[in-house]
Target: NitT/TauT family transport system ATP-binding protein
Amino acid sequence: MQLSSTSTAATAGTPAEEIIPAQQPASGQHVLVDLKQVSKRFASGGGEFTALDNVDLHIGKYEFVALIGPSGCGKSTILRLIAGLETPSGGKLVMDGCDGPGEFIKNNRLGVAFQDHALLPWLSAWDNVALPCKITGHKVNEQRIAWLLNLMGLTGFEKSRPKQLSGGMRQRVAIARSLVLRPELLLLDEPFGALDAVTRRRLNIELQALWSAERLTTLLVTHSVEEAIFLADRVIVMSPRPGRVRMERRIPFQRPRQPEIMRSPQFHALSDELTLALDELEAGEDLC
Ligand SMILES: Nc1ncnc2c1ncn2[C@@H]1O[C@H](COP(=O)(O)OP(=O)(O)OP(=O)(O)O)[C@@H](O)[C@H]1O
Ligand SMILES: [Mg+2]
Model:
């Protein structure tokens, strides 16, 4: 299968009309995050390892974009670049017209919840969520913290320390923390990875409601094709060695989305197509 942004692999019954030109938000949409030919190389065994190669990725304001791809294809590296934890080796990262993420970080426009949730072990769940307020000198909004903890299914665990919580609960504390300062841009790296299917589905629905209510722009990394299709406006598929953007699909479902869409033929067709693409990339096929 040819994995390219102009692929016409969709067959009868699949949403071929949704296949769009490469990595573009809807026309006329304000671009909030713009990776232009971004490369990232890491030092490796005396040489260099190319983790990302000429990645073009544009995320429109209020868009929800999901990144999927085999392990090691550079998904987290993209998030880390946008969060200012890494710098590009080549190309340019423009954020709302500014060079790099500095302005976003300075003005708390960015919320991040990464794989390594980095909660402070000596603080309670509540205090971990309140931490960004304290660090930045914002008033602690107790109502918002209570609301976020409730949204994340953590009511009753406010006083628990991270080691008293399960892995999934810790992840949810990290998500609540990422939202406490009402960011414009939310970066989520496999936030629901360690959750059981029922909790995951509930949080997907909650996240969608929150995303609409707070007008967030979101970049989500996930290993779940279904989660990506259910949540995102666009799903972007990456390939490894070196990490590249290989394909994308615009997701046509209206919002708010109900779990029933997961049973629709159109959902299944998209899911099959993206899963097949991932399988082929995992098997190392079609690598340039
Ligand atoms: N700081 C670093 N130093 C050296 N190599 C790195 C560093 N960070 C990432 N890499 C390498 O870059 C590649 C991409 O890593 P990244 O963590 O972005 O992948 P990923 O797509 O998020 O994978 P996963 O799905 O397993 O989380 C990997 O081969 C990884 O080993
Ligand atoms: Mg990762």
About this structure: Residues 1-22 have pLDDT under 50 and may be disordered. The first strand starts at residue 31 and ends at 44.
